[in-house]
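Quick one:
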Amino acid sequence: MKHYELLFVVKPTLTEEEVNGKLEFVKDVLTKNGAEIKTVDAMGVRKLAYEIEKCERGYYFVIYFQGNPAILDEVLRNLRLDENIIRFLNVKFENKKEIAQWEKLAANAAKKSTPKEEKKVEPAAAGEEQAE
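Output:
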């Protein structure tokens, strides 16, 4: 099985439920075609380098997965047909050095996606000054 990274950008005009639906759609296409998803990195809304289809921003997602090369045709066909996905990029990692890098990237994305315990920091009152 080969190692892949799939980045895609969804239009910012969609609601949160529709954006999550697009992510689930892509994940379903991957799993139905035999891919094993390692991790998903939802990068959120970011500014595009240039305007695409009158959009200056987009929801970025990166999926790290393993699978056979034959599944790429079906996945990329579905991405091309969806008008709400404005850009996508697929990267294949082949040699041992690239696969080691893929493992690091997937591990970092998994760490980012797990919720951390947030410490409650109470702001100082408006009239009070903080002592150092």
